[in-house]
Fold these 4 entries.
Entry 1:
Amino acid sequence: MRLALKIDVDTLMGFTEGVPPLLELLQERDIPASFFVAMGPDHSGRAVRRLFTHKGFLRKMLRTGAPRLYGFKTMLYGTLLPGPPIAASAPELLLKITAAGHELGLHGHDHVFWQDRLSGLSTTAVQAEILRAQKVLVGILGYPAISFAAPGWQCTPAAWDALVAEHFYYVSNTRGRYPYFPHTPQRSWPLVEIPTTLPTLDELLGLGGRRAADCNRDILAVLKRGGTHVFTLHAEVEGRVCFREFSDLLAQVQARGATFIRLVDYAKELWQQPDLIPRAEVISGTLPGRAGTVCCQSQGEEQP
Ligand SMILES: [Zn+2]
């Protein structure tokens, strides 16, 4: 039983307030993790537009208490307040992440832009967005990222093409069951995709009246079945208001004898025997507790 922690950083608040306590917790427990940071501006306020355009968003906001999770100010960035840069606001934090031995990958440049506009972007436009993120990272660390996690699990053929063109070592763009080479009926991409296999806390919260502690039980139940799992957490949530519950989750996972692996190390294992990596179709799907659609690994193919 192995667990990879994929820590998404979507907002400035998640970066400056959520990442430091998470780093401390991981160090205390001697756990390696993979951080994916949105490098550009925090335009979270624009996501409020989804209140009006995406079915189910308002219900989710109210159920999960999003204003409490994300903070009122964050919800105005990019609308009433200008969107502040995320990575450039605290470059020392990126250095701390890598100095601690964690993996640091890209979670896009402008998270909200990717999530809302990706479907209309050409390969060149997606590449430009990726290069903007790399430029910020190179300016701070001196080298580019080799891994990418799509904001909001949104991916299109143009985005897969752009990620191949930018030579990422692996990506984590979808929700699914095991790593694979993605394809559609028309296209396929020579890119290892390592999907998020477990539900997220913000999806589970409130489903059937669940509280954060109940969510841990659900996650542990899936983990018990064995294999390597990928859990996506959000620095805004698990690094702040659900910090205690997340800390409990790690303690329980370790008590059950599970080990932790960085996604990049998982990818290294996979690339050692590329012939054994299956192909799987990527489709647009919905998940319990999440508004809108996300890119998913098709249910149709069984792991060889
Ligand atoms: Zn995100």
Entry 2:
Amino acid sequence: MDLATFANHQSTPAPPLLEKLARATWQRTRHGRLMTDVQTGRVIAMISKLMQPTTILELGTFTGYGTLCLLEGLGPEGTLHTVESNDELFSLQDEFWQQAEGGHRIQRHHADALAFLHQWKVPLNGTVDLVYVDADKQNVNAQLDALLPLLSERGCLLFDNTWWNGTLYSRENGTGGSAAKADAMRRLNERLLSDTALQTVTVPTGDGLSVVRKA
Ligand SMILES: C[S@@+](CC[C@H](N)C(=O)[O-])C[C@H]1O[C@@H](n2cnc3c(N)ncnc32)[C@H](O)[C@@H]1O
């Protein structure tokens, strides 16, 4: 048994609706591997439950697996904004969000992630408690710049894929677009460590999850 499987066995299982969504994602989309993995999902759900955020923001919804994990901790009267550019995914998201407790508090935005951040700069300024950054990786540094002013005092950023398919710790880049994304993730990791205004811990789950707060 590998370490990830062992860690999964040592964790409270994901709710049945999430297991159903994971199966539907693999059966009904061509890109199941894009979905947040089970263990990362449990970690972000736990962080959300501990924080009880009033405003959550997710960049990159895909089929809504991470959305439902984050929703588990959304505080009373809270709103979960999630941003996705591909509207072909919306019917699958709706099907599962309608079955989720509190699913009506998910506000979906059909937009480019960075454009959304610029557009919503004023209404969200200083209010966002928890952000899950999981959209277009090549723009992740511009997204960080745009996200910092949106964070509330207790605001927390979660960056998925900070190992970029393992290439960042094995020091071998992928090719083509993937190399550009690896570069962006490498620059992000360097920024998170060198910026003394931020405090970061990278959790060895999935493809690397970096948890960031204001120092
Ligand atoms: C890795 S998947 C997200 C996985 C999801 N967070 C989950 O929990 O399963 C990345 C998603 O970002 C979307 N995406 C890619 N580029 C985007 C952009 N510029 N703006 C918004 N969404 C984007 C993709 O369509 C895809 O659904």
Entry 3:
Amino acid sequence: MNAVAAGSVGEALGAATDALAAAGVETPRLDAELLLAEAAGLERARLTADPSAGVDAAAAREFGVMVRRRVRREPVAYILGRKGFRQLELAVDPRVLIPRPETELLVEVALDLRPRRVLDVGTGSGAIALAVADELAAAEVVATDTSLDALAVAQANRARLGLESRVRLAHGTVPADERFDLVLANLPYVSEAELAALEPEITRHEPYAALSSGPTGLEAIEQLLGELAVAGALPGAIALEVGEGQAATVGELVRRAGFERVETRRDLAAIERVVIGRL
Ligand SMILES: C[S@@+](CC[C@H](N)C(=O)[O-])C[C@H]1O[C@@H](n2cnc3c(N)ncnc32)[C@H](O)[C@@H]1O
């Protein structure tokens, strides 16, 4: 990699993998490779193809800092400052939840229903709203969040992706006096009891307000359905991401809110992950 070498790629990866494994990291080798590739400014495949190559001093120093952060169980996405979602690369930091692969299902619902006006409630990094705008050229998208910190991250992502004219950001839950064809929401749904059992990557580093909204975990979803019903502004359809085992309860809440046709979609792990209601 460079003339001023501070050990080889193989040595650096071996030491980091041992440290990460000792700290309880689930995928120590993969994470070590991702971090060293970032520190060295190389593709991961190029890095691992030549374990005897030298690591230069600057890259070794940066790698050391990254590995220490990962040992404290900070998620790789926060250390790298980015996460892929659908076809986009989003900037992420501890102000927002790291977008999860299963949330891409909500974007697929939008692609199936092809709505004109879409509301993404609890937008976080902007993942759902920006992906819908990116993939549905005719959609007009509004995205809300009760966290001003999250809205700042979504705004920066929107600007970097050149989607300012397609996605409007607003503080709160449901914007007053507006109608939508489809409401999408990945709101916090972890109950307080379940929260304690999650990995330190989540409980120590992701924002509490993005994970749980109260004892049952369904408080934010109930608030959203309540706001839509009170405003007399039920959208043509709603799609809500839910936790494992919550689909039946949330399906009932959706039905009671006034949506007549209710169905669920499963994620790749066969968990009922999205509840869809239609008028
Ligand atoms: C689970 S995160 C989802 C972020 C993003 N949509 C994603 O899927 O990656 C939930 C987000 O909802 C926001 N939030 C929590 N309660 C809310 C509410 N009642 N109304 C609007 N946003 C809320 C949180 O601040 C957080 O950014």
Entry 4:
Amino acid sequence: MASANNSKQTVAVIGAGMTGITCARALYVAGYDVTVFEKSRGLGGRMATRRVGKTLTIDHGAQFITARSDAFKSFMQRACKAGTAEIWQPRLGEDEEAVDDDWYVGRPRMNSFLKPLAQGLNIREKATVSTITRDGQGWRITFAKGEPETFDRVVCTTPVDQARTLLATEPHIIETIKDVTVAPCWALLMASEARLRVDGDVLRAPTDDIAWMARNDTKPGRGAAGSVWVVHASVDWSRKNLEMDKDDAIDALLALVGKVTGGKLPTTTYESSHRWRYAQTENPLGQPFVATDDGTLYVGGDWCLGARVEYAFESGNAIAAALIEAV
Ligand SMILES: Cc1cc2nc3c(=O)[nH]c(=O)nc-3n(C[C@H](O)[C@H](O)[C@H](O)COP(=O)(O)OP(=O)(O)OC[C@H]3O[C@@H](n4cnc5c(N)ncnc54)[C@H](O)[C@@H]3O)c2cc1C
């Protein structure tokens, strides 16, 4: 339960991905004075969709969302009813194993179902946090640009490597999260008028170097002419080639796709690459968040529990509940 004093409590939430927005919404509803700081422009973090021209959109981060807990199932079902998410039913090729879970996607973009949660929140975009340090009973936040600000409570929901940098002055937190590891991922985005010669709309690990290939234009609401593919390289390949130039990565990734299609590739009308330095959790923390003993600083994200959007939802809600309880 929220304390009677919560309206006096200011809370800074760092990061406007699934964890940050879930947490900020719950705190806002409970009456806290919440400000969200996000370094990029827009919501969603790794639930990312690139807009190409006027009509083409391509999801280059999270590909689909599974919901296993009752709470998250009902969240995704409500989003479907509201028209901001939908179940994606790609055609699976003959060699692909059947799918047990529903695969949800935001509609028309991956982050679409976060937008209603963000309504009414004070979200400061293009605000990169540089440090988070104690300041009396509260916390002082400095930014890459602009004046420092002080808050009663802080919730940090950045990827774990960034959290380590931001919280360098909190040895207990750093020690607790030291074993968490997150793998990188190189992504290729490609569009062509002609079809790619493969069986099905989704190929899971078709070679050692490719973890995932999916036909993005088969997702609801993406609306593209032709054939649009997203390809994610395997963790090993991505790690080995992490510092590759982005243009070189396009050529290298196209060559990997060529191995799947027997060397034949259609002429592309669009091609691009994206390097995710922190893509998917390999070794999670094993608990939904970590906090200081006095309950004024919380650190969370999907990396606490695993590599899925549902874990980000769980981490964000768990932090909000703990913060409310602690006040
Ligand atoms: C290539 C790829 C494929 C994936 N596929 C799937 C999938 O199919 N299904 C699935 O469930 N999950 C998938 N995931 C994982 C999923 O995207 C994440 O679990 C989820 O989006 C994590 O949400 P989050 O809020 O914890 O973190 P993020 O989405 O990373 O949000 C953190 C936010 O913090 C911001 N930030 C970072 N540093 C700062 C700073 N210093 N100051 C201010 N803001 C900052 C970032 O810009 C970002 O918006 C995939 C991820 C990737 C990259």
